[in-house]
UniProtKB/TrEMBL annotation:
<dbReference type="InterPro" id="IPR000847">
    <property type="entry name" value="LysR_HTH_N"/>
</dbReference>
<keyword id="KW-0238">DNA-binding</keyword>
<dbReference type="InterPro" id="IPR058163">
    <property type="entry name" value="LysR-type_TF_proteobact-type"/>
</dbReference>
<comment type="similarity">
    <text>Belongs to the LysR transcriptional regulatory family.</text>
</comment>
<dbReference type="Pfam" id="PF00126">
    <property type="entry name" value="HTH_1"/>
</dbReference>
<keyword id="KW-0804">Transcription</keyword>
<dbReference type="InterPro" id="IPR036388">
    <property type="entry name" value="WH-like_DNA-bd_sf"/>
</dbReference>
<dbReference type="InterPro" id="IPR036390">
    <property type="entry name" value="WH_DNA-bd_sf"/>
</dbReference>
<keyword id="KW-0805">Transcription regulation</keyword>
<dbReference type="Pfam" id="PF03466">
    <property type="entry name" value="LysR_substrate"/>
</dbReference>
<dbReference type="InterPro" id="IPR005119">
    <property type="entry name" value="LysR_subst-bd"/>
</dbReference>
<feature type="domain" description="HTH lysR-type">
    <location>
        <begin position="5"/>
        <end position="62"/>
    </location>
</feature>
<protein>
    <submittedName>
        <fullName>LysR substrate-binding domain-containing protein</fullName>
    </submittedName>
</protein>
Length: 307
């Protein structure tokens, strides 16, 4: 068990010893010289040791005090460093936000727009975590998740947006088939994204489902290149390898830059996305700022699309 020590008195002693002056120590500690002298007497009584000797107008450390004053100074420095570290840790915790999203959503949608949030909320440090599966997503520690399923976790959940599935390919491939939607869907090579088949919540169509629903008859629908990641499939489509069922959230930039072009109507069922927020962090300022920003961002995009 540690001995109960008078820390204020020790601080007064160390400051006086370091400054060789009661007056300077009092100025440093923002107290009166009388208070410093009182604290030093209190410490001497506690230790039953004399700490200073007065010589005319000067004070000098006793032999015992001189032998230990540097160790006391180092001890106070350690305490000060520990307090600063605790303050920094608490500050970091209050300004940090962890956001989880699938690898493809984070790469092709969130990160390209994230600089807008960091510019308007410079005090918030955002950590992005990515996942490939629902299990991985729900096992991650995160303040906010962007997901396309209804979670069974105990969290606040709210709709964010709806994603469309749109057949897209490179402009060159579309031109080879006369830029005609029906001809492209009947004859152009198809590329498949295995991970997206069925979707996280069953709403993503595969090519067989899409073509059947649009009344397109085609042999060998399962034939063609296959990919297990949407991003890889998008690069392949941009290179002219085939037509993919592109996810509107991921292909927006490629469409805008002309690397991909839509070749037919979107699928009639949209896939919803949700914001799942930790109850513990719901009222934290970083999370409130991010939720407000991202919902307004999505709403402005939706309004622009409708217009």
């Amino acid at each position: 068990m540690r001995k109960r020590i008078p820390l204020n008195a020790i601080r007064a002693f160390e400051a006086t010893a370091r400054n060789s002056s009661v007056v300077k120590a009092a100025d440093e500690l923002c107290v009166t010289p009388t208070a410093v002298s009182h604290q030093i007497r209190q410490l001497e009584e506690f230790l039953q040791v004399r700490l200073f000797i007065r010589k005319n107008s000067r004070i000098e450390l006793t032999t015992e005090a001189r032998a230990n004053v540097h160790r006391i100074g180092r001890g106070l420095d350690l305490i000060n460093d520990a307090i600063l570290a605790l303050e920094a840790s608490d500050y970091d915790e209050r300004r940090r936000l962890t956001v989880s999203a699938s690898t493809s959503v984070a790469t092709f949608w969130l990160i390209p727009i994230l600089s807008e949030f960091t510019r308007q909320s410079e005090e918030v440090d955002v950590t992005i975590k990515t996942f490939l599966t629902r299990k991985e997503a729900e096992e991650q520690e995160s303040d906010l998740r962007i997901v396309n399923w209804l979670s069974q976790l105990d969290c606040h959940s709210e709709p964010l947006l709806e994603e469309e599935i749109i057949p897209v390919c490179s402009p060159e491939l579309a031109a080879r088939f006369g830029n005609d939607s029906r001809t492209i869907l009947q004859s152009a090579p198809l590329a498949h994204v295995d991970r997206a088949t069925g979707g996280m919540d069953g709403t993503y169509p595969d090519w067989a489902r899409y073509l059947a629903d649009f009344g397109i008859s085609r042999k060998g629908v399962a034939h063609g290149s296959r990919f297990n990641q949407a991003g890889t499939a998008m690069e392949a489509a941009s290179a002219g390898l085939g037509v993919i069922l592109g996810r509107s959230l991921l292909i927006a930039d490629a469409l805008e830059k002309g690397r991909l072009v839509p070749v037919a109507d979107p699928y009639h069922i949209r896939s919803p996305y949700y914001l799942n927020a930790s109850w513990k962090q719901m009222e934290s300022e970083p999370l409130v700022q991010f939720r407000t920003w991202i919902t307004e961002k999505v709403r402005s995009k939706e309004l622009a699309r409708v217009a």
